[in-house]
Each structure stands twice: as C-alpha cells, then as structure tokens.
Design a protein that fits this description.
By secondary structure, this protein is an alpha+beta fold. Helices cover 14% and strands 34% of the residues. The protein contains ten helices and 36 strands. A hairpin with a 5-residue loop joins strand 29 and strand 30.
C-alpha cells in the first residue's frame, strides 16, 4: 500500500450540497485532460550532457500510448533522433539516459498467471497482475536487450519459479559510478537462493565483477562513488523478544573486515533514521542522515576512526527533515557537498556551492511562483536540464544552454488551463488532543474569504508511512475536482512520515482511531474557517486513504455525508504481518497495523459509500472492497466497481481515468447527501 504520491483526492459535482456555481469562476476541466498519456515525461540527461532520453506520447496515438525518444543535445532544435513506440503488449513507462551511449528503459505488460506463492498478492489460484522488465538500448533504439541479464545456468529452475523471478525483477541498477566511462553497479537475484548479489557491470561488454553477495540478513550500504568498493553494509539481527536491531557495519581500512559500530546501531521498534549518505574524500568521515539527536532528521558527519559524530550537524532545519545531500557528480565537483534537500511543503534544494547556488537562484528568478528543480547538468554547466511546476501548472521540462538560452521541451499536459484550478495553501490545524497537523489546502478559482462555504473534500494520503507535497498533483485528482468548485484538504495525519519521529510513531496501532480523528478534525477546521459548511463534507482516499474512507463509513457520529474508498484495505485481520514482501517493512510496519477494523464494524455503517479497485491490483486485492460492500449494502447506499486491467500504482491507462473520474463525480452528485439523499 505504500505509495506516497497516490494519496487519493475527492471531488463533488456542481449540484452537490447546494453549491452555488455562480460564485466560482472556474470551468470544469474535462476528464480527458487527465486521462491522456502525458506529452512528455521521465526526462533525463546523460552525464556527459550529450544525450537526452524521455517517454513521450506515441505519434499518431492521440496521447493513447507511449514511445521512447532521444535527442542529440548538440542539435537539440532538430528534435528527437529516434522515436520508438511501445509494442502491442509491452508498454514503455520510464527511461533513463546512462553513459557509453546507452539508455535504460522500463517496460510493463499485463500478465495473468498462477504465481504459486511468488510476489505480491500471490496467495492461490490465478492472479491478474503486471510484468515489468528493464531493457538497455543505444541511441538508434533498434535493439532492446534485457538489462543486466543474468547469463548463469538455470538448471533445476521450474517454469513457475522462472516466472516468479521475472515478476520480482532479476536485476536492477544500483549506482551509476559517474567517473567510470563504462561501468555501473547492479544487483542480480540468485536464481536458486533468491538472495541478491552486487556486481560491477560493463555497459559495453556486458562483463560482470562480483562486489558483494547478499543474504537474508545482510544488504550492502554505501559503495564508494569513485571505485565501487563496498564501504558499509546493513544487518538486521534479533535483539530479544519480538525486537530487532539494525546494525551498520563499516569496513576497516587495515583489516578489510566489516565491524559493527554501536553508535550507528538502532532498535527497529524505536524507528530512528540512520542512513549512510556518502563519504568525505579528505577526512574519511561518513555523511549520516539521522534523527538520533533531534526530532527532525539532520545531516551529520561520523568518524569511523573515533566512532563518534561531530558535535554540530552538517545541515539541519528546525521544522523539517534533511532528506538528502546534493553531492557533485562531475569531474570538477565530484563528491563535494553542493547542497542538501529540505522536505518542507515541497522538497526544496538548498545549494551551498556558489556556482550552483547562483544558477539555481537565477532559474527561480526567471520562473517566479514556480517550483524549480535542477535534474541534470554537464561538467561546465553549459547544458542544464531543469523542471518547473506549480499547483496549477503540470511539470514542464527545459534545457538551459550556455547559461543564457532556454529551450522548453514541453509540458507533461500542455492542454491544461491552469486558470481553472485555483490556489494552494500550506496550513496547520489543531487536532482534538492538541496535536498540530500540517495539511495542503486547495481552493477553487474565484473563491474568496467570506464567500459562500464550498463543498469540501477531506483527502487522506496513502501509505500511511508517506506524505503529500505541495505543487502539481500527479494523480490529477485535486485539479480535476477543484476545477469543479471543491475545496480539497490533504491532512498529514499522525503516522505520516517527514514531520518528525514523534508524529510518525503517534500513528502506531491507531488505524481508524486517532489517525482517523485527524481526518475528522480537518473537516471541523474547514467549517470553523468558513471554507465549508458542516453539511458539505465528504471523504475520499486511495490505498491507506481508502481504508480511512471505509473507516469513516462505520464511525459515528461522522462529519461526512459520504465516502469514496479507492483500492482500500478494509480487513486488518487479513493484512497483519503479510504486509509486504520486504522483510524489514514486515517487521517495522506490519506490527503497527492495528486499530478499528472496518470489516468488523459494518453494522455501524451510517453514510453512503462508493468502493472501487482495479482487477490487477495485487497490493490491496479486490476482496477488501468487495467484502466491505457486501456487508454494508443493505444498511447504507453503497456501490462497488471493479476497474478492468487497473493496477494499484501509476501509471494508469487512459481508460482507468475515464472509468474512475466520472464514477466518483457521479456518485457524489447523485448519491451523497443532502443533495443526493
């Protein structure tokens, strides 16, 4: 269920709850504005600044299918040098420019098969899911080879086991090793033991060199960005009854052995962040991201020789976590700290390198009111790839040449009229127990303080160990509904990550309880602020947000007139410790999935509910939504829709948007009171 960016959004049609359409200037954006394949997406630049790779809408497909495209940046104005449409079955969904003239592209296709205990959603019988694979190609895009293919013997591997490995993905890119002209670090799954091994992989020759052989207990940590040498590894060990500890082991320079460092060892139940983010070339100290010494994650230097942290943090923020360091990847600045990321309302880059700071500040001045991100550059900064977006502006890709000329490659959705979307605010409200809850509030265009209260949608995100970010909503749900006159609030309820360890842990075992109070209190705050009337409220969520919508259906008294649960979990007893295929996540998150179980409380259902889920969703299988629907349909108005060929996570087909967006709007207009009751 973890998917920070799929936090579901809710909208209400113009007739719902007495909305006076005359007070709002916006014109509803059509469904196809969000259903169509983006014109351009997944844009990356090769490290040498010579090649650009992207996923585009396939020519002639009317934005109904994808294609892989690449540009020669020496002649950017000439357009793509190659465009390869997706096949009939395998569809391109992501791409990345590597080096040595190579590109990595991810393809995905529908798969219906007996998984026999393999992969997500794998219990019994035949499962409808998707198969994803990575391919390598060159600038001609005439040949696609399975990326980092394992050519080892497969004797004794059954057809079912082979299919399992294909689903899980047998190889992946781990580190790009920017200074090496040909090699990258990859991981491969051993086809007999299912453990991962890590190799140097030569993009030109296909040759491999073993770096580390993993097992169930141990995973690699930091590879040296220059040589690829493994410097740290992470180990999970039992530490008493129902307790585990995460150990970070560091390679001793003299002996070559990995040694446990107590200062970096944490108990999983305490959930401290302790991540090795890099190494300082001169001192040999490690860059560590941790909240061991503060409520928010800080960047600190750790000396393996003295086994101690520096007294003062390298980077810190009083309100928000440091989510990463920006390390130089070019010969002129390699491995130098150029800046860091602060996860505030948006993930904001703070550059400390004078040259990069001047570049970034200049771009922000050139695009006032937009969020700017530098996503690629060459060594002398003569070519810089950057993006812009805003709450009412989809992501747009640009290339800055010679620090003076900008070529705009295009917007993901150039057909969207941002004037119809409205404004966005970062707000904080107080929950009933005094906890401060941050939230993103989106208001429709034309609405002003003191105006007639709006129909409003409380929209909890998925995860729940995730968070929302301000800016353009990639799901399209928020702008779709704000253009229809709705206010949408996205509470960062307790249990959300990124707002301090205390806020995160406060959600443990509180599913449907205090976590749900935070959603109800968001509705109360909207009423107090005059944004919504108390009879103009609904809740809509997807994934964990779908659980929250189901929980709202059976909690009484409810502040909501109706609920929409997309891809929900409704039966906590059938989740438990089978929460994830990832062992660490099972240990950490699985034991916190407790609280009020909606399926056990269906007799208390009190408001209309719509439930929908994709028939290829293996993360929150359809039985959750269907069982809940069957239990409440005789008590409240209820609808259930199974969406053909829809997976849990994006990207979705155009048909999925065309099915779900009108479904939600129609339900809210016709079945949600008091306008629909």
């Amino acid at each position: 269920m973890k998917d920070a960016r799929l936090a579901a959004r809710l909208g209400i049609a113009a007739t719902l709850l007495g909305l006076a359409v005359g007070q709002v200037l916006a014109t509803p954006l059509p469904v196809d504005d969000f259903a169509k394949i983006p014109a351009i997406q997944s844009v990356t630049m090769s490290p040498d600044g010579k090649q650009l790779v992207a996923i585009i809408a396939a020519p002639g497909s009317n934005n109904g299918d994808t294609a892989l495209a690449n540009w020669n940046l020496d002649n950017l104005g000439a357009g793509p040098v190659a465009i390869t449409p997706s096949g009939d079955r395998m569809k391109f969904i992501a791409a990345s420019a590597l080096k040595a003239g190579r590109s990595l592209v991810i393809g995905r296709q529908e798969l219906t098969a007996q998984l026999a205990g393999c992969g997500e959603g794998n219990s019994v019988g035949t499962t409808k899911t998707f198969l994803s694979k990575a391919y390598l190609t060159d600038t001609t895009q005439t040949k696609f080879d399975e990326a980092f293919a394992d050519n080892s013997r497969k004797l004794g591997i059954s057809e079912q086991t082979q299919r399992c490995l294909e689903l899980a993905g047998t190889a992946s890119l781990v580190h790009s090793l920017p200074l090496d002209p040909d090699k990258v670090i990859i991981s491969q799954i051993n086809q007999s033991t299912f453990s991962a091994s890590y190799y140097l992989f030569n993009l030109k020759s296909g040759e491999t060199e073993l770096l580390f052989r993993g097992d169930a207990r141990s995973t690699p940590g930091l590879f040296h960005p220059r040589s690829g040498e493994l410097l740290t590894r992470t180990q999970i060990e039992p530490a008493g009854s129902n307790e585990y500890e995460q150990q970070i082991l560091i390679k001793d320079k003299t002996s070559g052995k990995f040694e446990k460092h107590d200062a970096l060892t944490t108990k999983l139940s305490e959930r401290y962040t302790m991540d090795v983010a890099g190494i300082d070339d001169q001192s040999g100290k490690l860059y560590i991201l941790t909240d061991r010494y503060s409520e928010q994650v800080q960047a600190r230097l750790y000396d393996p020789a003295t086994r101690s942290f520096d007294k003062e943090p390298l980077a810190a923020h009083p309100q928000y976590p440091i989510s990463g360091l920006i390390l130089g990847s070019k010969p002129s600045n390699f491995n130098q700290v150029l800046g860091f990321y602060v996860d505030g309302p948006r993930r904001e880059a703070i550059y400390v390198d004078p040259q990069m700071k001047a570049l970034y500040d200049g771009l922000k001045q050139a695009y006032p009111g937009k969020y700017v991100a530098i996503t690629g550059y060459n060594d002398d900064l003569s070519r810089v790839l950057f993006t812009t977006n805003g709450a009412n502006t989809p992501t747009t890709y640009h290339v800055l040449s010679d620090r003076k000329q900008v070529t705009t490659l295009g917007s993901e959705r150039p057909w969207i009229d941002g004037k119809q979307i409205g404004e966005q605010r970062w707000v904080t409200y107080t929950a009933r127990d005094g906890r401060k809850i941050p939230a993103i509030l989106d208001l429709p265009a034309g609405w002003q303080e003191g105006g007639e209260p709006l129909p409003a949608l409380v929209h909890p995100h998925g995860g729940p160990w995730a968070r929302d970010y301000a800016g353009w909503d990639v799901s399209g749900w928020v702008p779709y509904f704000t253009s229809r006159g709705y206010a949408v609030i996205r509470p960062q309820y307790r249990g959300s990550t990124g707002f301090g360890r205390d806020h995160w842990i406060a959600g443990d075992k509180q599913w449907g309880l205090t976590m749900q109070d935070d959603n109800d209190d968001a509705a109360a705050w909207l009423v107090q602020q005059g944004i919504a009337a108390k009879d103009r409220l609904a809740i809509f969520g997807y994934s964990y947000g779908g659980f929250a919508a189901a929980a709202a259906t059976v909690r009484s008294p409810s502040p909501f007139q109706c609920a929409i649960a997309g891809a929900p979990v409704t039966d906590l007893g059938r989740v438990g410790m089978s929460w994830s295929e990832n062992r660490l996540q099972r240990i950490l998150q699985g034991q916190t999935v407790k609280g009020m179980d909606p399926i056990q409380n269906t007799a208390k259902a009190s408001i209309p509910v719509l439930l929908y889920v994709g028939d290829r969703d293996v993360r929150t299988p359809a039985f959750h939504a269907r069982s809940f629907y069957n239990a409440v349909q005789g008590k409240v108005p209820a609808k259930f829709e199974l969406i053909a060929d829809m997976p849990h996570s994006m990207p979705w087909y155009p048909s999925h948007y065309r099915a779900t967006l009108p479904l939600m709007a129609d339900f809210l207009a016709k079945d949600c009171g008091p306008g629909g009751l």
